[in-house]
Design brief:
The structure is a single chain. The chain has 504 residues and is α+β, with helices and mostly antiparallel strands. The strands form 4 sheets. Strands 1, 3, 7, 8, 11 and 13 form a 6-stranded mixed sheet that branches. It has a 3-stranded antiparallel sheet with strand order 2-6-12, with no helix packed on it. α3 runs antiparallel to α5, α3 runs parallel beside α6 and α11 packs across α12. The chain is flat, with a radius of gyration of 35 Å. The N terminus is likely disordered.
Length: 504
C-alpha cells in the first residue's frame, strides 16, 4: 500500500477506555480528544443529523399521538422496515463510533474509513423513506404510464388533419330537477336516431374529499349510423355547452355494429350547475360520428408548435444578446486581477461579485414569475427573466476567464506606459475572445432549453403550450411539442459545435 495513504498522528490526550466512554456519551468526542478533530466532528455531525431526521420522520409517521413511545409505536406499525432499520443502524453506528474512538488512541499510523460507508448507508435509507420511493408501484403501475408515453413518443398522426363531416343525433334527459322526463325523440326517415333510458337522473358530483360520486347510470341506444364506425358520445348542458365525457382518462365512445346500431351504458358526467339555474334542467346526450374528407392539412397543434418553437429560439437569442451586452462590462469589474490596484476598486470587485452570486442563486423560473408580474404574460417576460440570469452567469464565467489569462502581455503593455483602458483593449481582450465565444454559445443553448421551462409560468415560448396540453391530457399534441423541443436542441447543439470549432 502507498505510504501516502496514511498520516502520522499526534499522541492521544486520553486513554482508550476514556475515549470510548466519551464517545459513548457524545459520539465523536473520543475521537476529538484523541486529536482526530475533523474525524470526530464529522461523526458527531452525522449522528446528530441522523437522529434529528429519524425523530422528524417518527413524528410524521406517528402524528396525532401524544407521547414519544406511543408515537414511536404508531410509526413502527405504519412503516416497520424503515423504523427497525434506522434504529438498528443508529445503534450499530454508535457502537462503531465507540470502537473507532479506541482505535484512534493507538500510536502510529491510523486508518479505517469503513465507518463512513455505514453513515452513507443510513443517510441513503432515510433518504429512501423521505423521498417515498416505491419500487413495487413503479413496476406494477408501469402500464398506466405506457398509454400517455406511447402518444408522446409517436404523436405524428395528430400533426395532420382533414376537413370533417359529422353524422349525429341526440336525446334529451332531465337532470337534478323535478318534473316530467322529456319524451323520446321522434324518428326521421333516413337520419340517425338516438334515445336514452332512463331519461332522468342525477349528474356525478364531488364529495367532501373531492372524490367523484358517480351519477345515474343510463343506457344510450343508437340506430341509423354508419356501420362499424367509431361513434363519440357528447353531452350538452342546459345552456348548450357541449363537452365529451371521460371515463378513466379516456373519452367515452363506442363502435357501431354491422347495421349501424349501438348500445352502451354510462354514468351521467360531472358538470357544475350554476346556482342561478331555475326550473327544469334539460341536458342532451349526443351520438356523433366524424369522418375525414379532403386533403391532409397541418393540424392546429403542429402550427402552434412551430410558431412557438420559433418564438422560443428567438427568446433565447435575444436574452443571450442582452446578457452579453450587460455582462461584458460587469465581468471586468468582477475580475480580481484587474480590480486589485486600490482599496476602492477592490471594494467594487467584492460588491459586484456579491450581486452576481445573489442574482445567479435565484433560478430563472423565479425570475420569470417576477417578470410576469412586472411586464405581464408573454415572451417579453421570459426574455427579461433569462437576461437577468444570463448577466449573472456570463458575468461570473467571463470574469473567471479574465482572472486566468496570461499576465505576460499585460505586464508588457503596462511597461510601455499604456493606460488602464489600453491595457484591457490590447492585452486582455485578445486573450478573452475564445473563452467568451465558447461561454456565449453555451449560454445560448441553456437559454433556449430554459425557455421551455419558464414558459410554464407564463413566460412565453413553447413551454406555455406544452404545459397546457399536458393539463388537458392531450398527450399527442404534447408529444409534438416535445419532439420539436428535442429537434431544436439537437440542431442548436450542432450549430454551436460548428461555431465553436471556427472561433475557439
Amino acid at each position: 500500500m502507498s505510504p501516502e495513504r496514511y498520516k502520522e498522528k499526534k499522541p492521544s490526550l486520553v486513554t482508550a477506555p476514556v475515549a470510548a466512554l466519551l464517545s459513548f456519551f457524545v459520539p465523536g468526542l473520543g475521537q476529538i480528544m484523541a486529536r482526530r478533530v475533523q474525524r470526530g466532528l464529522l461523526m458527531l455531525g452525522a449522528m446528530v443529523t441522523i437522529i434529528g431526521l429519524f425523530i422528524w420522520r417518527v413524528n410524521l409517521l406517528g402524528r396525532r399521538v401524544d407521547g414519544f413511545w406511543p408515537t414511536l409505536s404508531k410509526a413502527l406499525e405504519r412503516n416497520t422496515f424503515f423504523i427497525s432499520f434506522t434504529i438498528l443502524a443508529i445503534v450499530a453506528l454508535w457502537v462503531w463510533i465507540v470502537y473507532d474512538a479506541v482505535k484512534q488512541t493507538r500510536k502510529g499510523k491510523q486508518y479505517g474509513n469503513a465507518i463512513f460507508a455505514l453513515i452513507l448507508l443510513v443517510f441513503f435509507g432515510i433518504g429512501w423513506q423521505i423521498s417515498e420511493i416505491d419500487i413495487v408501484k413503479l413496476t406494477s403501475d408501469a402500464n398506466e404510464a405506457w398509454l400517455p408515453l406511447s402518444k408522446i413518443l409517436w404523436p405524428w398522426d395528430a400533426a395532420v388533419t382533414r376537413s370533417t363531416e359529422s353524422l349525429e343525433a341526440g336525446a334529451e334527459v332531465l337532470v337534478d330537477s323535478e318534473g316530467p322526463a322529456p319524451p323520446k325523440p321522434e324518428r326521421v326517415e333516413g337520419e340517425p336516431y338516438v334515445w336514452v333510458e332512463p331519461r332522468e337522473g342525477e349528474l356525478s358530483r364531488l364529495d367532501d374529499d373531492n372524490n367523484i360520486i358517480p351519477g345515474t347510470e343510463i343506457t344510450v341506444y343508437g340506430e341509423g349510423f354508419a356501420p362499424e364506425t367509431r361513434t363519440e358520445i357528447w353531452w350538452s348542458d342546459a345552456i348548450g355547452n357541449e363537452f365529451q365525457p371521460r371515463y378513466q382518462g379516456r373519452y367515452v365512445s363506442t363502435v357501431t355494429d354491422e347495421e349501424g346500431n349501438f348500445e352502451m351504458t354510462m354514468n351521467m358526467p360531472y358538470r357544475l350547475v350554476p346556482p342561478s339555474a331555475r326550473g327544469q334542467q334539460i341536458h342532451k346526450v349526443i351520438g356523433r360520428q366524424v369522418s375525414e374528407v379532403g386533403p391532409l392539412l397541418p393540424s392546429d397543434p403542429l402550427v402552434l408548435t412551430i410558431e412557438l418553437i420559433i418564438e422560443t429560439i428567438f427568446m433565447g437569442m435575444m436574452a443571450t444578446l442582452f446578457g452579453i451586452v450587460f455582462s461584458v462590462p460587469v465581468s471586468f469589474l468582477a475580475a480580481r486581477n484587474l480590480m486589485s490596484s486600490s482599496w476602492i476598486t477592490l471594494l467594487i470587485y467584492y460588491i459586484t461579485r456579491t450581486i452576481l452570486n445573489i442574482v445567479r442563486a435565484i433560478e430563472p423560473l423565479i425570475w420569470a414569475l417576477i417578470a410576469v408580474v412586472w411586464v405581464g404574460l408573454g415572451p417579453f417576460a421570459g426574455i427579461v427573466a433569462l437576461t437577468i440570469h444570463s448577466i449573472a452567469a456570463l458575468g461570473k464565467l467571463y470574469s473567471e476567464s479574465i482572472e486566468s489569462i496570461n499576465p505576460g502581455p499585460i505586464e508588457a503593455i503596462q511597461a510601455t506606459g499604456a493606460t488602464k483602458l489600453q491595457t484591457i483593449m490590447f492585452a486582455v481582450v485578445p486573450q478573452m475572445i475564445p473563452p467568451f465565444v465558447s461561454f456565449t454559445i453555451y449560454r445560448w443553448d441553456i437559454n433556449v432549453r430554459m425557455s421551455t421551462v419558464i414558459g410554464m409560468v407564463g413566460g412565453g415560448g413553447i413551454g406555455f403550450l406544452l404545459v397546457q396540453y399536458i393539463r388537458l391530457l392531450e398527450y399527442k399534441s404534447a408529444g409534438i411539442a416535445v419532439w420539436f423541443i428535442a429537434l431544436t436542441v439537437a440542431i442548436l447543439d450542432y450549430v454551436s459545435a460548428e461555431i465553436r470549432q471556427r472561433f475557439v
